[in-house]
Design brief:
There is one protein chain. This protein is mostly beta strands and about 110 residues long. About 10% of the residues lie in helices and about 45% in strands. The protein has a four-stranded antiparallel sheet with strand order 2-1-8-5, with no helix packed on it. Strands 3-4-7-6 form a four-stranded antiparallel sheet, with no helix packed on it. The longest helix is centred in the first third of the chain and has 10 residues. About 20% of the residues are buried.
């Protein structure tokens, strides 16, 4: 029946967690120290407030990413660029929008 089909579609998520990494301390140079991760291989400091998260190839950049700032309620972090093996995360202040260093958790979602 159509109800059974609708229910089975709801029970099968389109996007699943594929990689994640968590920084609980602000990183200001080089390779950042992750407190925990799964599949994501590293986070590198690029410039003030800009980080590159690396992970095994996804084949393309068609994946979802969720970034949550850690520790400082006045900082917002988000993905500003995606590639098959990396994502760029940028952190800004919520009040002025100035780019600032921050800690964050990154979650990659894919089919």
């Amino acid at each position: 029946t159509s109800a059974a089909i609708s229910h089975s579609k709801l029970a099968t998520p389109a996007l699943l967690p594929k990689a994640w990494i968590s920084l609980t301390a602000t990183c200001t140079a080089g390779t950042c120290s992750a407190v925990d991760n799964s599949v994501a291989t590293s986070v590198a400091f690029v410039s003030t407030g800009v980080y590159t998260v690396a992970f095994p190839t996804r084949g393309d950049a068609n994946y979802g990413a969720l970034v949550t700032a850690y520790g400082n309620l006045l900082i917002n972090c988000g993905v500003t660029a995606r590639a098959a093996t990396t994502a760029t995360v940028t952190c800004v202040t919520g009040t002025t929008g100035a780019v600032v260093n921050g800690a964050f958790t990154f979650l990659l979602l894919d089919t």
